[in-house]
Amino acid sequence: MTQITYIQHGGAATTLDVPDGWSLMQAATANGVDGILGECGGSCACATCHCYLDERLMALLPPPSEAERDMLDNVAAPRQPNSRLACQIKASAAMQGGLVTLPATQE
Amino acid sequence: MFSFDPYSPAIDAEPFAAYKTLRDEYPCFWSPEANMWVLSRYADIVTAGQDWQTYSSASGNLMTELPNRAGATLGTTDPPRHDRLRALVQSAFMKRNLESLSEPIRDIARQCAQELAGQAQFDFKDFSSRFTVKVLMAALGLPTGDEALVDESVVREKAVLMVQSDPVTRAKGPEHLAAYNWMQDYASQVIALRRAAPRNDLISNFAMAEIDGDRLDEREVLLTTTTLIMAGVESLGGFMMMLALNLADHPESRQAVVAQPERLPDAIEESLRFNTSAQRFRRRLMRDVTLHGQTMKAGDFVCLAYGSGNRDERQYPNPDLYDIARKPRGHLGFGGGVHACLGTAIARLSVKIAFDEFHKVVPQYRRVHDQLAWMPSSTFRSPLVLDLAAL
User: Fold this and answer.
1) What sign results for the dihedral spanned by CA atoms B32, B297, A1, B282?
2) Domain map of chain B by residue range?
3) Considering the domain boundaries, does residue A60 fall inside one?
4) What is the bridge-based pairing of β-strands B55-56 and B365-367?
5) A76: chain B residues, CB-CB within 8 Å
6) Is residue A2 part of a domain?
7) Taking CB atoms and an 8 Å cutoff, what residues of chain B touch A42?
8) pLDDT in tens, chain A (107 residues)
């Protein structure tokens, strides 16, 4: 389990114990975190699990794949350098304490 | 002694009691009849769906796999090949690219619903199948009208047959293999037609696509197209049958969505959770995995029982209650992980429009028969016939 904190657009924070190997999208939707949809089920196909990563996660994680970069073109809220799709990021111990900020809108 | 045979007609008809025993007592269950493991808890299925390196799809994903298909379709390849293939077809199925289909879909729904006007009793399948095949033909750009290669009812009939198994042997029988071969021939004719005169449609684009400068393998083009037609027609039609059944069985929910069609998406999501037509898919282990005290060996097949995960009380309180106010997040009605359904957006859009138009013609209805005949399939679950009486 890795603790990840999701911060919704309004500022509400939820900290989840994410099982290793689960995507940040799957953990958020399974636990009812608002502000993230994941309409396609986690196949990098809908851009509705857009999130912004904190600096430490940005430094830690490998850059997005080509497919994820293409899909990031479709996000509804402003795309930033730290924009990622939460379905493409799998929890691991090194991410303990990471902060994920959710955008104002996903569609 | 508990047994669970996903190939038995009893499980086709009613899997939910057995699922509960599996979840509570045998969360990692070896089924000797099926010769595979069965995972039934929500969390375990999500984990397996995410971990494609361990739970591979490359040996096939259907509970009863069709010959020569594994390795050549989206559902039966693993990343990175899968991701490249999927990228080629994905954009056609994205929500924002479907908006142009919304009006044509509504016209189709209106036309199909109108045929039910004045009928005291009808088989809902007449509506769902007509609607589904027309929508898929429009969405995939299959030849229709003067260009049509065959009557659309034949496409529907073959798509439905190829996902079924023989009710007795539970293997693919000659008629199912013949339907599969027919569909490949049909797909191959469509591909040839689109290559000769490409249009701006999914199959034209896919048939001409390249990955790293190489044309796709011909088997990939053919079997992916075949699978898109099969999955589109069968899954969409099967799910519509389940939603109609749920709304017939839960009059208060039906009245709510008839009065407020904007609540249809809630009924759709709850039905995807409650009794999704995509009940079970299969993976194969690439390494040994120990789970709940059992060791599954590399090479073993594993059934992911999505329909059971969706009824897991560890995830959804009071899971056997059909409640359109539930708004179930993260359900497994479309599977999950890299292989989650390609058509989620078009499925949600089409089903919403179909029921909106259906309810304008038939707002009140009930089921005619208590007992239903269920499709002989270990992957998909829906009734073969759903007679409804207009009230």
Assistant:
1) negative
2) 9-390
3) yes
4) unpaired
5) none
6) no
7) 49-50, 336-338, 340
8) 999 999 999 999 999 999 999 999 999 999 999 999 998 888 888 899 999 999 999 999 999 998 899 999 999 999 999 999 999 999 999 999 999 999 999 98
Residue A75 sits in a domain whose CATH number is 3.10.20.30
How far is the CA of A13 from the CAs of A17, A24, A65, in angstroms? 13, 15, 28
Residues of A with CB under 8 A from a CB of B: 19, 21-23, 26, 29-32, 38-46, 65-67, 70, 74, 90, 107
**Cα–Cα dist B156/B234, whole Å:** 8
Closest residue, chain A, to B326 (C-alpha): A32
Per-residue pLDDT, B129: 94
Residue B62, classified by CB atoms within 10 Å of its CB into exposed (0-12), middle (13-18) or buried (19+), is: buried
Q: Is A1 part of any domain?
A: no
A15 φ/ψ angles, rounded to the nearest 5 degrees:
-105, 125
Looking at residue B102, what is its pLDDT? 95
Rounded to two decimals, what is the model's pTM? 0.94
Structural domain for A64, as ranges: 8-17+26-101
A2-7 vs A98-101, strand pairing mode = parallel
Enumerate the residues of chain A whose CB falls inside 8 A of the CB of residue B342. 43, 45
**Residue from B74, B90, B326, B342 to probe the interface with A (highest A Cβ count within 10 Å):** B90
For residue A7, the cross-strand partners are: A13, A101
Indicate the number of domains in chain A.
Answer: 1
How far is the C-alpha of B99 from the C-alpha of B4, rounded, in Å?
Answer: 43
Domain B9-390 belongs to what architecture?
Orthogonal Bundle (1.10)
B329 contacts A32? CB cut-off 8 A = yes
Helices B81-90 and B218-249: crossing angle, nearest 10°?
Answer: 70
Low-confidence ranges of chain B (pLDDT < 50): none
| Residue at A33 is within a domain | yes
Helix ranges (H only) for chain B are 9-13, 16-25, 42-50, 81-90, 99-114, 124-140, 152-162, 174-196, 202-208, 218-249, 251-259, 264-275, 306-309, 344-361
d(CA B66, CA B106): 34
Beta bridge partners of B387: B123
Helix (H) or strand (E) holding B351: helix B344-361
Q: Which residues of B touch A41 (CB under 8 A)?
A: 334-337, 340-341, 344
Determine the pLDDT at residue B232. 87
Cβ–Cβ under 8 Å, residues B388 and B125: no
Residues on chain B touching A44 (C-beta within 8 angstroms): 83, 338
